[in-house]
Design goal:
The complex is a heterodimer of chains A (298) and B (252). Chain A contains 11 helices and no strands. Chain A has helices at 7-10, 23-59, 64-71, 74-114, 121-136, 139-152, 162-188, 191-199, 204-234, 246-257, 261-292. In chain A, helix 7 (162-188) crosses helix 9. In chain A, 78% of the residues lie in helices and 0% in strands. Chain B folds into 2 domains: 1-85 and 178-252, 3-Layer(aba) Sandwich (Rossmann fold); 87-162, no CATH class. Helices cover 37% and strands 23% of the residues of chain B. Classes of the chains: A mainly alpha (298), B alpha/beta (252).
Chain lengths: 298, 252
């Protein structure tokens, strides 16, 4: 919880409560403002100092002129950017579709693993086997099997599009990861919550749906985001089947020009894509926290 | 100022708001050493908030709080150092479920106060023994009854030899049979001379044990006095009404 207080101005005057901040409070707030100004100043100075040191170290490195030409060439960057962005659109679409599929499938597997009762043994077993297998299988091998192996079967009505097949492989692997995240979250909810829900007459499924999962999901947001960001980067791997995504687009230019700047451009574009996503989830979770707790712990 | 008469805890015009609502308004309080102060009043009258403010778990908006003559609400003060001198027992016990009873109790003595494991455990076991929990040192909190958990929570607060003990409706979550065992512990602590501030709904207990009773209503200390004054001859109409309702409910 935030402890910043700015109520002296926000508080509406109440005729029954003729409150005016005391000198003590004003002094305290002055002190806090001074302290936060000092903290900001220190942060700014230390950031600047670090940046300058890093800059000098890099620029004075013996190979810098050559590196600069090969990795930070403005002309190639300008040439690569539109192509990379065009390819990135494929990554974004893959991320959106696979992301949703992964969340749904992962949740189903996690719930299957937490089902109790002997009837559900086969389901539990299958779910466990699935996560064990796909978490262990290297993604690159999974991709090659699916992208290259499935078309080789020449099945009627099954797509040979490397994007769809690559997306399928990504979904298979990431569902296994995400299922484990969900399962850990479900099991982290104190048994008393389930007991309270069951005591109200909610069935096991209802307890899971209305009490356990909503609490679990809240805790899982950071690790889930981790997996989604990882997924976003791994969408680049569909290029092994020949699809042209951001990485492949950069690759093509590098192959032609022997200048590595396009890789840097592609890398930065990926970073630029994740930062807003992280900030957004931080904001969402912070807002959820604020709503739940009134008071704060210092 | 000598240790015998200077108040352990002193509050002066403390004000606390949550969002737009004023939870504490101009609260003054003095707690003399080796005395027990009971805060009574309806739910939502500000009792718990007052205790949380005293332990700096809530930041007050205005006013000031002193512990042994030192202003603890000064922004320059080291809050952890203040909290090291105050013990708190919460309504919901707040034991750490991943630690055994003994680990719960020795955590602060070892990590904060720098006691050796042997010293901390010896003192912990001694306190457990005194509170009738000698056999429970190795148990995990979830395996204990509510009364046992609450007594463990009291031991945890006592293990650091606090100057002041804050008890926040510590029996509210217990059934009547278990209430007795916890309240007896508090009586014993009073006998040992522990300075305590407690928020409670147990009026009979407050009357027995408290040297000072404060009736809170709408975030204001409406009336204060000795237990005989407040329970025997309340001056304010609100206090009378509150006590009448308590009597009707058979709680006094």
């Amino acid at each position: 919880m935030t402890l910043t207080k700015d109520e002296s101005g926000a508080e509406t005057p109440d005729p029954l409560d003729p409150y005016t901040p005391s000198a003590r409070r004003l002094e305290r707030e002055r002190h806090k403002r001074a302290r936060s100004r000092r903290a900001t100043a220190i942060a700014a100075v230390s950031t600047l100092a670090t940046a300058v040191v890093l800059y000098l170290v890099v620029v004075n490195a013996p190979g810098w002129p050559r590196t600069k030409e090969t990795f930070f060439n403005g002309q190639y960057a300008r040439e690569a950017l539109p192509k990379v962005l065009e390819g990135l659109w494929l990554n974004v679409r893959l991320l959106l579709i696979c992301g949703v599929a992964v969340l749904v499938l992962g949740m189903l597997i996690a719930v299957a693993r937490t089902l109790r009762g002997p009837v559900f043994f086969p389901l539990r077993f299958l779910a466990a086997a699935y996560t064990d297998f796909f978490r262990g299988l290297p993604l690159i091998i999974n991709l090659m099997i699916v992208v290259l192996g499935v078309p080789a079967l020449r099945l009627q009505g099954v797509t040979v599009d490397p994007v769809w097949l690559g997306g399928t492989a990504l979904t298979l692997t990431y569902s296994a990861y995400v299922a484990e995240v969900f399962r850990a979250g479900i099991e982290s909810i104190h048994p008393s919550q389930r007991a309270a829900a069951r005591s109200l007459g909610l069935s096991n499924r209802q307890a899971l749906r209305y009490v356990v999962l909503p609490q679990a999901v809240r805790r899982q947001v950071p690790p889930l985001l981790n997996d989604l960001v990882s997924l976003q980067k791994d969408t680049g791997l569909v290029s092994i089947g020949g699809a042209v995504d951001a990485v492949r687009a950069a690759d093509i230019i590098v192959g032609r020009s022997l200048n590595y700047t396009p890789y840097i451009v592609a890398g930065l574009v990926f970073v630029a894509l994740t930062i807003p996503m992280t900030r957004f989830t931080d904001w969402v979770t912070a807002r959820m926290d604020r709503r739940r707790a009134q008071g704060g712990i210092a | 100022m000598s240790d015998t008469d200077a108040p352990v805890l002193r509050m002066e015009s403390v004000r606390k708001t949550f969002g737009g609502s004023v939870v504490l308004r101009d609260v003054d309080l003095e707690v003399a050493p080796h005395t027990v102060t009971a805060l009574i009043g309806a739910s939502g009258s500000g009792k718990s908030t007052l205790l949380r403010c005293a332990n700096l778990l809530e930041e007050i908006d205005d006013g000031a709080i002193w512990l042994d003559g030192e202003e603890i609400t000064d922004p320059r003060v080291d809050q952890d150092a203040v909290r090291r001198r105050i013990g708190v027992v919460f309504q919901a016990y707040n034991l750490f479920p991943h630690m055994t009873v003994l680990e719960n109790i020795t955590l602060a003595p070892r990590r904060v106060h720098g006691l050796s494991r042997a010293e901390a455990e010896e003192r912990g076991r001694e306190l457990l023994e005194r509170l009738g929990l000698g056999g429970k040192a190795g148990e995990y909190p979830d395996r204990l009854s509510g009364g046992q958990q609450q007594r463990v929570a009291i031991v945890r607060a006592l293990a650091v030899r606090p100057r002041l003990l804050l008890l926040d409706e510590i029996t509210a979550a217990l059934d009547p049979e278990l209430v007795g065992e916890v309240l007896n512990v508090v009586r014993d602590l009073k006998g040992d001379g522990m300075t305590m501030v407690l928020a409670t709904h147990e009026m009979g207990f407050a009357r027995d044990v408290a040297d000072q009773v404060c009736f809170l209503d709408g975030g204001v200390v409406l009336e204060r006095g000795s237990a005989e004054q407040i329970f025997g001859d309340p001056q304010q109409e609100r206090t009378r009404r509150f006590l009448r309702r308590i009597v009707e409910a058979g709680r006094l």
